[in-house]
């Protein structure tokens, strides 16, 4: 049904609802004008209703890739987070306290060394862009894996090194990677490999600390940040993981 047909039906409805002869030429044009106003108003409301909807939200939801996560403790979490977020394929990072013995710890409590928490970075990554062995390889470049409860100038159980997983399928991958890296050291490694028992976000001022405070304290050599940005996975033949490309 086209617009003229709809107008004709609308006018017929008006005629039936009016007393006989009351729909003069003047009233006819007035009714038709009212109809046009109503039509324009309806179209405007339709446009506004579409404008109010987030464009493409359903498409974005279906296009979202599933992320994986791993929790890495490497001494002071300020530098560890800043390093890890440079890596291509790392989608999000948050700093916090992992595997301790109290609920909702504060930084001051963790610093006492009595809570058993480790300063830890939660890493969410795209497995299509970066794999877990590659992340661990890079992480090892920022730590001394043979040093117990000490990284750089920081001492205490909260500064221990550790890899904490939430997916049990990651455990054999972690162990195989760490065993391979252990061959590079003359002393035994002391990096914890454990399931994540708990994790509490650190206070807001700790999040993205070195972004907010360029030049702030960091136990990691700043040249490693550039290495992390440039690092790429090398694949050969059947795609077997090989090494880093600087």
From TrEMBL:
Catalyzes what?
[thioredoxin]-disulfide + L-methionine + H2O = L-methionine (S)-S-oxide + [thioredoxin]-dithiol; L-methionyl-[protein] + [thioredoxin]-disulfide + H2O = L-methionyl-(S)-S-oxide-[protein] + [thioredoxin]-dithiol
Recorded superkingdom: Bacteria
Q: Where is the Peptide methionine sulphoxide reductase MsrA domain?
A: 69-219
Any one GO MF annotation of this record: peptide-methionine (S)-S-oxide reductase activity
What is the E.C. number? 1.8.4.11
Alphabetized, the UniProt keywords read: Oxidoreductase
Decide whether keyword Oxidoreductase is in the record: yes
- Positions annotated as active site in the UniProt record: 76
Alphabetized InterPro entries for the sequence: Met_Sox_Rdtase_MsrA_dom (IPR002569), Met_Sox_Rdtase_MsrA_sf (IPR036509), MsrA_MetSO_reductase (IPR050162)
The record's top EC class is oxidoreductase
Question: Which NCBIfam families does the record match to this protein?
Answer: msrA
Name the family the entry cites: Belongs to the MsrA Met sulfoxide reductase family.
- UniProt function note: Has an important function as a repair enzyme for proteins that have been inactivated by oxidation. Catalyzes the reversible oxidation-reduction of methionine sulfoxide in proteins to methionine.
In Swiss-Prot or TrEMBL terms, this protein is called: Peptide methionine sulfoxide reductase MsrA
